[in-house]
Amino acid sequence: MKQFLIIVFTIYSITSFSQTDSRIYDIINSVSVNRIEQDISKLANFGTRHTLSDTLSETRGIGAARRWIKSEFEKTSNSCNDCLEVFFQKNLVKKGDNNRIINDVWVVNVVAIQRGTKYPNRFIIMSGDIDSRVSDPNNFTSDSPGANDNASGMAGTLEVARVLSKYKFENSVVYLGLSGEEQGLYGGKGFANYAIEQGWEIIGVLNNDMIGNIKGVDGVISNRDFRIFSEPVPPTETEKERKSRRFYGGEVDGISRQLARYTYKTTKTYMPEMNPMMIYRLDRFGRGGHHRPFNDVGFAGIRIMEAHENYTQQHQDIRDEKGIEYGDKLKFVNFKYAAKLTAVNAITMASLAWSPPAPTQVGIGGIVEASAKLKWDKISDAKGYKIYWRDTTSPTWDYSRFVGDVTEFTLDGIVIDNFFFGVSSIGKNGHESVVVFPNIIMR
Ligand SMILES: [Zn+2]
Fold it and tell me: Could you tell me the pTM of the whole model?
């Protein structure tokens, strides 16, 4: 009888903790629409934030904008007992590096780090962009409010810093303002190199670029839909890994895709009113964003953005033409929607920052058997592991089994050929790592 009660209690605690941590709801409720509106307005009112614009003025240009962003992070830090390390990270880009760099320019990013209590060298990063542009990418003087592209993502990042700095996390959290996006993704490239130099272990990058537009150029309006872009597999994979995929799978299971699925699931669990759309591609067709330089060097990274874009309000000179109001103006931004996508980031960041490391080695076997065997390395901090599987055509991890504190398990009756599999670790607090696709074949 006593044993029975213990078993019931264990099962109860697993399900309740892994589904609902009430702090996650507190985080959603703490995101302020007003502060996001104020910050987007402030950023749009720097006149232009073009990467090559004025850096000396206190009111206009990218210099004023980045100093203000830094001061906001410092304010946040002051109210959490100096919990953030705030600094500029910069790289000199020389004239002619590409045809959008018409002068030598310091590409300056603004960084705020909230150090993890247990894993200070493991980082989850949220980014937005500081810079803006008009029709001519090299016009660095005309008014370029960039209210949606990308004051919205920057304001979201400032707000997540305010909200999450009230908590302590096992892993480090980085709030990042990147520059040079419109000139060729220079800020992201510089920062990805900085992370490599520092020897950072990156859990993932959530890049936010345009999170405030709800009315598409085609007239479709939705304040619920949003997109999560992720590339299928890292460009850094080896020839051996590429060949192996042909026989063992993994074409749609790279590390960025797992991060996308994690974001999707966290949203569905805690914000079911939202409609996340996983897009199985690096970015929009032929276009770029600041998650890419992180992907380029082998880090997991995704782009979070609105679902319905309006092209007359992106990269446009401010003007009226044939009855159309062109330009990325403040009045077109929906602040409530930007706050919703900000909350999506905040809860994904918090869940990851509270979770133990994922297993690094996951083996799989079961050729010509009516069962699938999985084996993984032990994570000292995990209370157990979850095996996931899904139909080969499914985008999401639809089946799962918590298997406790073991490092191998056989799923009887599950034929390896008919599903894809993965393993995650579950922390003592119930939070869960990203799912790891098997990287070792067991024979
Ligand atoms: Zn842009």
Answer: 0.95
